[in-house]
Automatic annotation (TrEMBL):
Coiled coil: 65-92
Primary gene name: pheS
CDD domains: PheRS_alpha_core
Protein's recorded name: Phenylalanine--tRNA ligase alpha subunit
GO biological process, one term: phenylalanyl-tRNA aminoacylation
Cofactor, free-text remark: Binds 2 magnesium ions per tetramer.
Molecular-function annotations in GO: ATP binding; catalytic activity, acting on a protein; magnesium ion binding; phenylalanine-tRNA ligase activity; transferase activity; tRNA binding
Catalytic reaction(s) noted: tRNA(Phe) + L-phenylalanine + ATP = L-phenylalanyl-tRNA(Phe) + AMP + diphosphate + H(+)
Statement: the UniProt record of this protein carries the keyword Glycoprotein: no
Family matches, as InterPro entries: aa-tRNA-synth_II (IPR006195), aa-tRNA-synth_II/BPL/LPL (IPR045864), Phe-tRNA-synth_IIc_asu (IPR004529), Phe-tRNA_ligase_II_N (IPR004188), Phe_tRNA_ligase_alpha1_bac (IPR022911), Phenylalanyl-tRNA_Synthase (IPR002319), tRNA-bd_arm (IPR010978)
Origin species: Anaerobacillus arseniciselenatis
SUPFAM superfamilies, A to Z: Class II aaRS and biotin synthetases (SSF55681), tRNA-binding arm (SSF46589)
């Protein structure tokens, strides 16, 4: 049996030495060291040996296994090293070639516009507040002076989930929640950017989902002239230093008095063109002084505090700023459209 083990060791070492690939080495390992290999068969026959011979044969079998395993590891390392050398020899790198440019993404134009708006108002001392897109009827309507039977609710076609839950139709609920948070103690000076939802037919100028930025300022002795000054400063920072605005009387349930705000046409600079319908003005947002009832429902004393609020559509501002003629471009994910907004 000792002679047989010596023969197996020599055979295995010879095959390992002549092996030219890792697969051949794996075959040798399975053949000699596997459960069905000849060394295992020798060990199974140890039961027929005398008590004196068993430890000798057992030790010898372990030595043979160890010698074969060591030789296999040595040969594997050598073949792997040769493989690396061969690959390095076949692969050449020209370090003088220019690098391949990495394709990077770009900020979505709506994201860029929202960030621009935020920067402008933060520069005027406003904070940024957010709220849930799934709102209660109370915060979306009632807290803004729109009780359940108010006819002005018809102005906003709403996606209802239940009788009391809905997708918000504007970001004004964030203003109502913020007033509650301040518990009647001013000043409050915030803008509320976010997505809103209305049941509308999608076309070049309308979408069932769009973005708004609304603003709220509450303090003692806040006046309409403060509102006009803030909006004029915003228009100049957003559209250019020569921009003008005008305020026209309007109606919103949550402000009194209410105004529509126009800017001088960004296309013709006020001279009159097809875009502004020859008027020289383009409507961009609604605003007004916060209704005393809205102040009271938010926890503020309307005799002590006053305030103004405004709301603007982000897509409309982006379309005017960049000369875009179809709101659907913002949501189609057309790379040709989006890549136009890459930063230099």
């Amino acid at each position: 049996m000792q002679e047989r083990l010596k023969e197996l060791q020599q055979e295995a070492l010879n095959q390992i030495e002549s092996a030219q690939s890792l697969k051949e080495l794996q075959d040798v390992k399975v053949s000699y060291l596997g459960k069905k290999g000849p060394i295992t068969e020798v060990l199974r026959g140890m039961g027929k040996l005398s008590a004196d011979e068993r430890p000798i044969i057992g030790q010898m079998a372990n030595d043979v296994r160890g010698a074969i395993s060591d030789k296999l590891e040595e040969k594997v390392a050598k073949l792997e090293e040769l493989e690396v050398e061969k690959r390095l020899a076949s692969e050449s790198i020209d370090v003088t070639l220019p690098g391949r440019p990495a394709n990077t993404g770009v900020r979505h134009p709506l994201t860029a516009v929202v960030e621009n708006i935020e920067d402008i108002f933060i520069g005027m001392g406003f904070g940024v507040s957010e709220g849930p897109e799934v709102e209660t009827d109370y915060y979306n309507f009632e807290a803004l002076n729109l009780p359940k039977d108010h006819p002005a609710r018809d102005m906003q076609d709403t996606f209802y989930i239940t009788e009391e839950l809905l997708l918000r139709t504007h970001t004004s609920p964030v203003q109502a929640r913020t007033m509650e948070k301040y518990a009647g103690k001013g000043p409050v000076k915030i803008i509320c950017p976010g997505k809103v939802f209305r049941r509308d037919d999608d076309d070049a100028t309308h979408s069932h989902q769009f973005m708004q930025v609304e603003g709220l300022y509450i303090d003692e002795n806040v006046r309409m002239s403060d509102l006009k000054g803030v909006l004029l400063e915003f228009a100049k920072k957003f559209f250019g230093p020569d921009q003008k605005i005008r305020l026209r009387p309007s109606f919103f349930p949550f402000t009194e008095p209410s105004v529509e705000v126009d800017i001088s046409c960004v296309m013709c600079k006020g001279d009159g063109c097809r875009i502004c319908k020859e008027t020289g003005w383009i409507e961009v947002l609604g605003a007004g002084m916060v209704h005393p009832r809205v102040l009271e429902m938010g926890g503020f004393d309307s005799k002590k505090y006053s305030g103004f609020a405004f709301g603007m559509g982000v897509e409309r501002l982006a379309m005017l700023k960049y000369g875009i003629d179809d709101i659907r471009h913002f949501y189609l994910n057309d790379k040709r459209f989006l890549e136009q907004f890459k930063r230099a």
